[in-house]
Design goal:
Number of helices: 14
CATH class of one domain: Alpha Beta
Number of strands: 14
Largest sheet: 8 strands, parallel, barrel
Order of helices and strands: EHHEHEEHEHHEEEEEHEHEHHHEHEHH
CATH architecture of one domain: Alpha-Beta Barrel
Structural class: alpha/beta
Length: 396
């Protein structure tokens, strides 16, 4: 049953001249003051969601993006601040990119944020997809096998640090602790200080490729999965949801379809479906312009080349919002239609509890984001909150 609603914000600035005929991504560059404006935009989104009763606000960690698309470099610092200006909203790391951190520094920072916010920060891990970011921090992303190997060892280190009072780890990339003398004894184990107050740590990871190796790794460590939103444009497929249920069962956890998942879907509410499509077509294409050269976006090389040329792209037959609606990654139209589509999703996957209300794709201005959060919170969420209140209490 769907009971919890969050929203993902990648950290994009408001920008002019968007869409297929708009400014090419690589031609954008914002001033320092404009780039710092991402923090006031984040505050406005978070305080609005808190007032409306959303459950959690998710943001993405990214670096060096003077183009203005993903401009939040440190989620945990930001979330400690946001916790001070909100009452109940929780804050999800969507995601801290492990290969840009030493795992012990990331574990310490998360534990500190967990304590300072009273448990309102949700941990999240990811492998990254920007070569400019990960490689600049001295770790691999172009070599995907090396990236995954490093990521998996980093998660192993952090899970030991969180859940063991003292620990050691001796792997390919990390030798923790090194065998050195310390205060008259040989160092064999260390303790994370501080450790999180809320244990076991709730942890989430994006499901992008959904390889079986990746699913098994997540299940082994009790990591939950997020499908859709941000850099993962597709809707949640039946095959992936089913394989995730089977994977959890092999690791000893029985769930209904959709269990231990959050589904990110792009929404736009308007009086009619046609009006909604017209409102977001340029935003949809700006989002595609940003992500397609990095992750493909189901486009071939020729389409990606055309996408970067505003003189050719508008007439190139590129994917549209209508295509995304048919694929399930967008739901648009009046509130009643949006509610109906989510109820259908709930019937398909009865174990699904969390929906990410994605109303901040690249190019979406703050005014539209706040308007859509208000409409969804007032016109769609109550149906699901009411069914939660009316549901029978679970048996002892």
């Amino acid at each position: 049953m769907i009971t919890k609603f969050g929203s993902l914000f990648a950290g994009n600035l408001d920008m002019d001249d968007i869409g297929l005929a708009g400014t090419p991504v690589n031609d954008r560059s914002f001033s320092d003051d404009e780039l710092a404006g991402v923090f006031s935009k984040t505050e406005a989104i978070a305080t609005t969601m808190d007032r409306l009763g959303y459950d959690d606000f998710w943001a993405a960690e990214h670096h060096f993006q003077h183009e203005g698309y993903e401009c939040i470099p440190n989620l945990l610092m930001l979330f400690v601040h946001l916790a001070h200006i909100t009452e109940n909203l929780r804050f999800g790391c969507g995601f801290n990119i492990n290969p840009m951190w030493h795992p012990l520094r990331l574990a310490e920072d998360y534990a500190t944020a967990d304590i300072l916010t009273g448990g309102r920060v949700i941990f999240g891990v990811g492998r990254g997809y920007h070569s400019r970011e990960v490689e600049s921090f001295g770790n691999p992303i172009i070599d995907q096998d090396a990236n995954r190997e490093l990521f998996e060892e980093q998660v192993e280190v952090m899970m030991k640090a969180f859940h063991q009072r003292s620990f050691s780890h001796h792997g390919k990339y990390y030798d923790i602790p090194p065998q050195v003398p310390y205060r008259g004894y040989e160092l064999e184990e260390i303790t994370l200080v501080p450790r999180p107050r809320n244990l076991p740590v709730e942890c989430w990871q994006p499901m992008v490729s959904a390889s079986q190796r990746g699913l098994d790794f997540m299940a082994k460590h009790g990591i939950k999965g997020i499908i859709g939103g941000g850099a993962a444009p597709g809707g949640a497929g039946e095959e992936v949801v089913k394989r995730w249920q089977e994977t959890l069962a092999r690791h000893g956890k029985e769930t209904e379809l959709g269990g231990d998942l959050a589904i990110g879907i792009n929404f736009h509410i308007a009086e009619t479906e046609r009006e909604a499509i017209e409102n977001v077509q340029d935003i949809f294409h700006e989002n595609m312009k940003m992500f397609a050269p990095l992750i493909g976006h189901d486009l071939d090389d020729d389409q990606i080349e055309v996408l970067a040329d505003p003189s050719r792209a508008p007439n190139a037959g590129l994917p549209t919002v209508e295509d995304a609606i048919r694929g399930g990654s967008w739901i648009v139209g009046p509130p009643e239609l949006v509610t109906e589509k989510l109820l259908e999703l709930q019937d398909r996957w009865p174990g699904l509890e969390r929906i990410h209300v994605n109303v901040t794709p690249m190019g979406a201005p703050l005014s539209m984001t706040l308007e859509q959060l208000e409409l969804f919170g007032a016109e769609v969420m109550p149906t699901f909150k009411e069914q939660e209140a009316e549901a029978p209490a679970p048996a002892d």
